[in-house]
Amino acid sequence: MWRASSEPTSFAPPASAWTAAVEPLPDARPLEGARRADVVVVGAGYTGLSAALHLAQRAVDVVVLDSAEPGWGASGRNGGQIIPGLKHDPDELERRFGPETGRRMWQIAGDAADVVFELIARHKISCHAQQCGWIAAAPNAAALVSLRSRTAQWQRRGAPVDLLDGKRIAELTGATGYVGGMLDRRAGALQPLAFVRGLARAAQQAGAAIHGRSAVGRLESTAGAWRVETGAGTVTARTVILATNAYTDDLWPGLRRTVLPVQSYQVATRPLPGDVRRQVLPGGQVVSDLRRILFYFRLDPEGRLLMGGRGPLDDRGDPALFARLEAVARRLFPQIGTASWEHRWSGRVALTADHLPHLHEPQPGLLIGLGYNGRGVAMATVMGKLLADRALGASHAEIGWPVTPIEPIPLHRWRLPAMALVVHWKRFQDWFDAR
User: Could you read off the pLDDT of 70-112 as tens digits, one per residue?
Assistant: First the structure.
């Protein structure tokens, strides 16, 4: 018997560029009373809703529970960049996991963006999805060497990627300060809050029940089934899927300590004037760079410049970090001048010690997927499908993703001061490299 530790202070997602224009939330009234189901999913973000949708489409009785509302966490707050692949390149995956498992991993991750676009098309989800490509931007010569290797590895495997020199990346982005990059045409962009609400709507139409404001306070296994309790109801099911990612609490022993929930900060301008917009990201791609403490940016459908970057592990919303992002944007894009900044918001990203998403199965009938390291739009959606396949009886070999034990990060309780030192050191290294 285990108990969760906390609930959100607000059920509505924080104000952002995404909440300004989005379809209403599908009905997700709180769970009341006792019911049975085949599968209960805890967490109504990309992972949980993708799992629910894939299960419901195969006539599985599935219930989704969330402590706030669908998309309240990272799924409704992220930068909307649909990036295939992982932090580790294909050759490294094959070295670490062997040729067969490594091959399956890079194939799954490499196809992840296509899975998202196909899901959006199949369910007619209105979320401004565009397969416009992603640029990994190199701020220095060492980063470009790394990208040259990555580009070659993906090209050998048939992926539509190209290496960019300094002139070409300047043409495609309009940004200053990058010596080259890699263009991946599999990638793209979407409106993240609209996507998560579209997933919720599609899952409901397929037969899934979704309940917001239903924090799970207890999870226990009895008589070959799982019993999940909220404040006002219970669900008994043969399978439980935990899909809480960076907002994981103590519902299952040790799980919270397997990820580092780092804050990701974002700012957005007002829509840029037409002449400026033609100079900023004229190729339409989304971008993230290879700094140790990275920056990422794109234009939204209304022509706002969105700039994001990593912050501390806590949720204090430091105004100085928002101001720093705005200063970085002006440095990268001097053509925006004294742009007016309209939105500022933040949310958590779940980092893992090995920089890989984790799939756990600590007991029969309990499945867990989390830890997307900043690539959650594509990988969380795909992880939901893998978890659904496993819940339906697929073997570990058929899933293709390694199932690993829950291993808490050592000294996790000291993560706040330790990570603060790491962040300051990496920022100094980035500054030193840029001199």
Answer: 999 999 999 999 999 999 999 999 999 999 999 999 999 999 9
Q: For strand 62-65 and strand 161-165, is the pairing parallel, antiparallel, or unpaired?
A: unpaired
- Tokens representing 422 are 């790491």
Query: Is residue 299 within 8 Å of residue 308, measured between CB atoms?
Result: no
Burial of 274 (0-12, 13-18, 19+ CB in 10 A): exposed
CB 399 within 8 A of CB 387: no
By the 8 A CB rule, do 210 and 219 touch?
A: no
Between CA 116 and CA 126, with CA 120 as vertex, the angle to 5 degrees is 130
The position carrying tokens 């002449």 is: 275
Question: For residue 411, what are the contacts with CB-CB under 8 A and spacing of at least 6?
Answer: 418
Q: Residue 103: which region, alpha, beta or left (left: phi > 0; alpha: psi -120 to 50)?
A: alpha
Q: Is 296 helix (H, G, I), strand (E, B) or coil?
A: strand
156's CB contacts (< 8 A; 6+ apart) are none
Contacts of 23 (CB under 8 A, 6+ apart): 126, 194, 197, 198
**In this structure, what token pair is assigned to residue 38?**
């085949």
Cβ 152 vs Cβ 176: under 8 Å? no
**CA R_g for the chain:** 21
Cα 291 → chain centroid: 19
* Token pair 């949980």 in the structure block, residue: 48
Nearest to 52 by CA among 225, 215, 202: 202
Q: Where are any strands of DSSP class E within 91-206?
A: 134-138, 161-165, 180-184, 188-189
| Residues 28-43 as b or e (16 or more Cβ within 10 Å = b) | bebbeeeeebbbbbbb
pLDDT digits (tens, 9 = 90+) for 195-232: 999 999 999 999 999 999 999 999 999 888 999 999 99
Q: Contact, 219 vs 251, CB < 8 A?
A: yes
- Reference 41, options 192, 203, 198; nearest CA is 203
243 and 43 Cβ atoms separated by less than 8 Å: yes
CA 360 from centre of chain: 18
Helices and strands, counts by H and E, the chain:
12, 19
- Give the whole-angstrom CA distance, residue 75 versus residue 97: 29
Residue 213, sorted as left (phi over 0), alpha (psi -120 to 50) or beta, turns out to be: left
C-alpha atoms less than 13 angstroms from C-alpha of 314 in its C-beta half-sphere: 9
Q: What pTM, to 2 d.p., does this model score?
A: 0.92
